[in-house]
Amino acid sequence: MSFKEVDTIAFDDQKPGTAGLRKSVKRFQTPHYLENFVQSVFDAVPALKGDTLVLGGDGRFYNREAAASIIRMAHANGVQRVVVGQGALLSTPAAAHLIAQEQATGGFLLTASHNPGGPDGDFGIKFNVAGGGQASAELTDRIHAISQAIERYWISELSLPSLDETGQHEIDGMVLDVVDPVSAHADLLEAQFDFPRIRQWLSEKPERFVFDALHAITGPYAREIFCRRLGAPMASVLNSQPKDDFGGGHPDPNPHDAAGFVQGFRKTSGAELGAASDGDGDRNMILGPHRMVSPCDSLAVIAANHDCIPALAGNLKGVARSMPTSRALDEVARSLEIPCHETPTGWRFFASLLEGGHIRLCGEESFGTSSDHVREKDGLWAVLAWMQMMAARGLSVDELLEAHWRRFGRHYFVRHDFALNSEQGEAVIQYLGKQADQGHPDTESPGHLMDRFHYTDPVSGHRVENQGIRLSCPDGARVVFRLSGTGTKGATLRIYLEQPVPADGDWRRDRQTVLAPLAQKAAEVAGLKSLAGRETADVII
Ligand code: VG1
Ligand code: CO
């Protein structure tokens, strides 16, 4: 026999969060830690036996070792074919696409997304199912239950061919296909947009576009798509060399973590559209010369201008946003007379709606936007959507935004993150939960309503509870409170603040100024001072 059965003991911390299992690299390096989780997936998804599995990651530290272990375990668990990206690399949207294209039963995505990498950083593993979407809440619960009682796993003892060259190998009855990680995804994106039109827009003024890959996975994708296929100068893609520690940076495309890029972009003469993506290529940040586009607005603007995007034109059908994402999208859906779904945070809820054919466009305030071309969020898709809108309408980022606000009004939006310890996080959520259960925070705030957000998936019928606490104010303002499910230490409290103003209201103000009083109120309602000794947020996005 070319594989062995290994005795193991269950770990009690393998419950996946918002998007897979994320822990420090050191935790993943604990003997049997990765293998226990991977075997739990094989046990939970018996259809993997005799079928195809996709594998790849964002290239962070430990990516290669983890990929090699998973290939060996796939062999020992009877997988018939493994399709792996060259160098064990695949961006998250590219992996999701490959799962669908290869009609695989599922795939392992090795990523901790925007969390820092390197030996002292984080690692993660995510299992996506047939079609490419993230494991459902039900399947995730099953995997977790198995991981709590696991006693053995199987792993091959065979040596593996190099993953650095593309090609097909046969390993003791299993096929290993090492494929180019970029081309299939680039082809998919090319089919969604009018590339000749974007190419022309870029050729008119090559310096108008700058993209920062933050030394993460999107570098090679951006070079292929923006430079080779669309003719942008090579110099327009910054930090395009992927590094296993992301060059020491925090690969999160937001004005806090990518502040250096934002400042540099503003000083670049002639630059009109700036963009960046995260560690695994599923997030996007869109910048104009004078302002960042709030991801909530970006989603709404794309919905309102979907006719510019060939794959969406004339047939948007339905849209969705995560619950904390501002309701700017709802205004557009109302005017288009299409359904707008409100889901819990995390892409797996969208994947179900996309698979069920309910929606064609969706997004989250956390810099995630995508369409039904793939079952994950897709950073480069969003960048192309903005290029396409600018090219088709002949408008700048600012002009597109202002035209939108003038028509639909504006939903001012800001998120405040508080890094708390686990006890403080729990205490704050419990305190808020008690108020929600009474329906309102205090008698001095008439008309204010508090509730907990629960969700029933209309496709699977599966219900998930307690996905955040909402405070709704009589003037339409809203605050959402929830704990992050992607961190690896302590508890991050996220407070989402939203203040709508109508089309004839003042939508020209600074969002921080507009939302300062609501932020103050939110901190009071959460009891942040007494329960956590805190008054100001650690990060404001
Ligand atoms: C965060 C975001 C959420 C996103 C998730 C995964 O989750 O808020 O919107 O889907 O990250 O994104 P949380 O639980 O920390 O708030 V990624 O780019 O890490 O796959
Ligand atoms: Co990501």
Automatic annotation (TrEMBL):
Classification via InterPro entries: A-D-PHexomutase_a/b/a-I (IPR005844), A-D-PHexomutase_a/b/a-I/II/III (IPR016055), A-D-PHexomutase_a/b/a-II (IPR005845), A-D-PHexomutase_a/b/a-III (IPR005846), A-D-PHexomutase_C_sf (IPR036900), A-D-PHexomutase_CS (IPR016066), Alpha-D-phosphohexomutase_SF (IPR005841), PGM (IPR045244)
UniProt key word Mitochondrion: no
Phosphoprotein among keywords: yes
UniProt domain Alpha-D-phosphohexomutase alpha/beta/alpha: residue ranges: 14-152, 187-287, 297-408
Annotated Pfam families: PGM1_C_vert_fung, PGM_PMM_I, PGM_PMM_II, PGM_PMM_III
Cofactor requirements of the protein: Mg(2+)
Superkingdom of the organism of origin: Bacteria
EC numbers for this chain: 5.4.2.2
Region listing for Disordered, in residue ranges: 241-261
Gene Ontology MF annotations: phosphoglucomutase activity
UniProtKB keywords: Isomerase, Magnesium, Metal-binding, Phosphoprotein
Catalyses which reaction(s): alpha-D-glucose 1-phosphate = alpha-D-glucose 6-phosphate
PANTHER family for this protein: PHOSPHOGLUCOMUTASE, PHOSPHOHEXOMUTASE FAMILY MEMBER
UniProt similarity note: Belongs to the phosphohexose mutase family.
Protein name: phosphoglucomutase (alpha-D-glucose-1,6-bisphosphate-dependent)
